[in-house]
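Example record for the data management plan.
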Amino acid sequence: LRAVGRFNHPDSLQVLLKTCATGNADEIQLAREVLTGLNGKKIDEALLKETMSADNAVRLEAVKMMRVRRTLGGIPILVRIVYDDVHEIRYEALITLGILGTQSELKMMVDSWRRGRWSEKERVAIGGSIVSVAKRSPSGSDRVAALHGALKKSSSPDVQMSIIRALNEIQDDASIAAYR
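Corresponding structural encoding:
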């Protein structure tokens, strides 16, 4: 795997991502180290292509690696994944958007968080991603508007509590209106 990484070539991504998806613990760790060390725009472009692979395990690992490599060019792909993909990949896309996303993706993230059938652990992690994006956004009502709307639309007490926790973590004066 290290030898493959030394070439720093986009064609190595398929092998490395497949190893991340199917290898033993040592192989997975080594493949992730090699993937993290690859450099260049062509590597990131190839990573984005792998998110459209027919193999869900490879796609899942590609989404995770976008987060590690900070592949900002992948935001539109992540948004598409959140709207229409298998549960596990949608979840990882939302977590990755927590690192890469901007205020522009907040409403979509909140809507998916509110409507999705997430476990408690997933709901907490996605809420953390939403809080991360909101905290990076300019202060004011725009960064909490999606959460305000979701709080009004949600009938689930669990989802409502998650939204209230997120608003509390964001700590924007504009959040006060949601408590009225």
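Summary line stored alongside the record: The mean pLDDT is 91.
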